[in-house]
């Protein structure tokens, strides 16, 4: 009996996919076959497990099926184990539907067989049936006393929670299993991968992601990947109007300390620091950090630097940078909008008008570009063209804040919201305006409403604009 137990232990160890001695497992199979000549279902089950561990699926499946046949309903728990292990062999061959049927047969015979719940949960998860997977993971978590199995179930369940958008529940599971991370090496990297994949760019979860990275760094303070991810999450929180828990000076110091040791993605991190300063309204610091990013990767980070220079009214510096962005690296409406701002700043009015027209050709719904184009025509002529452009803008964007500004300042021309236009001929309209509006009235094209747009790290950055002065957002 003692030798039998030793051989069975060898097979059980091998079934757990731990390091095992193949020769001992082969000897165990031969020993059981020689000493258990009755050929009962339990004997066949043990032999099948041995063949499964050795990677001999055909023989393993044959023995599992034979054991089920011999059990004949007299030993439902053993039959359930056979069905579960048979399902695992079938699943490895790629027949997932048949494998799930085997797991379900196992649970009919033994509803509390946690191995079957785990296998079925994992199979449903892989098939995308997340609600079903969650049900079976719950069965394991709330029923099993085995710490290792419970941790494994929680680890897999939290992935399902993330995929279902149930981030709070996912982080609750992380909070439970994280203290075991020093004894179970898989926990920290597994949780880190999930937080990175699902919680780093979500307004609802970024705060808890930051808490997770802080906890990770308390255990592994030298992990540079985690240090960087924490910095990126802090920046994301700041740029999405959340309290990151640190101020700009602390963030800048952390970025500088990190980049002193690791320069990978240095431009992107300097860009994040620039955005942080920009959100705080500190455009001098924003320009300084954007310039660091630009020096490292001019093709990618010229737009943000150019926008900051526009805000600081350093148009001679911003224009060549923005023109290169608009013509080569980021040829889109946002870039041409900023080019127009810079061109007006240096007095190139014709170029400014042309750039606004380019922006609108690329994005006809770029409301601020249309209002600003009308403003340039009003300031520099012809005013009839300004009225025409503004009329179109008011018709297309009646709820825009600048529409209200026009209706207020040109009340005798444009009237109240929803009112009929008093004139249809632009010349007539302009002449009417001449008697109602002072020639000193000026349009300030950089006084648009506050708008903000944040792009993901994998795309070209776009400036965060919160000043009410330079608006680069759509």
TrEMBL record:
<dbReference type="InterPro" id="IPR019734">
    <property type="entry name" value="TPR_rpt"/>
</dbReference>
<dbReference type="InterPro" id="IPR011990">
    <property type="entry name" value="TPR-like_helical_dom_sf"/>
</dbReference>
<protein>
    <submittedName>
        <fullName>Uncharacterized protein</fullName>
    </submittedName>
</protein>
<dbReference type="Pfam" id="PF13424">
    <property type="entry name" value="TPR_12"/>
</dbReference>
<dbReference type="Pfam" id="PF13432">
    <property type="entry name" value="TPR_16"/>
</dbReference>
